[in-house]
Amino acid sequence: MRPVLSLEALKAKVGETVGTSDWILVDQERIDRFAETTGDHQFIHVNPELARQTPFGTTIAHGFLSLSLLAPMGYSAMPLIAGVKMGVNYGLNRVRFLAPVKSGSRIRGHFRLADVTERAKGVVQSTYHVTVEIEGEEKPALQAEWINLVYL
Length: 152
What we know:
By secondary structure, this protein is α+β, with helices and mostly antiparallel strands. Helices cover 25% and strands 40% of the residues.
């Protein structure tokens, strides 16, 4: 269960890893659904026979699929601010795709709180450095600086 913190308690955690998400399976069905949704049907994602001939040996998830999974990862890992009415994704400052996520892999996110700023009365901006781990792999799938706004 996600912790609920006061704004002051959250600010005190700047610089700390504040959560690790649950594992998420990235199987071929999820990859195919993402390809259908986005129209990105590159063979490396959707054609297992051709993908076997690549250095990866199998299909891999779209980088943007892995990135889109930050949302459910965040739901299970990022602390909530007491009194929050809603939160929105404000954007990303930096994203790097470091290793392919092979079909059938599981990934999870590690969230380090980089900054908390009160933008206006009742509006809080939080910035997280996120590393997405691939189970059993040394190199992470991606790293991103993710910015969220919450309204109190």
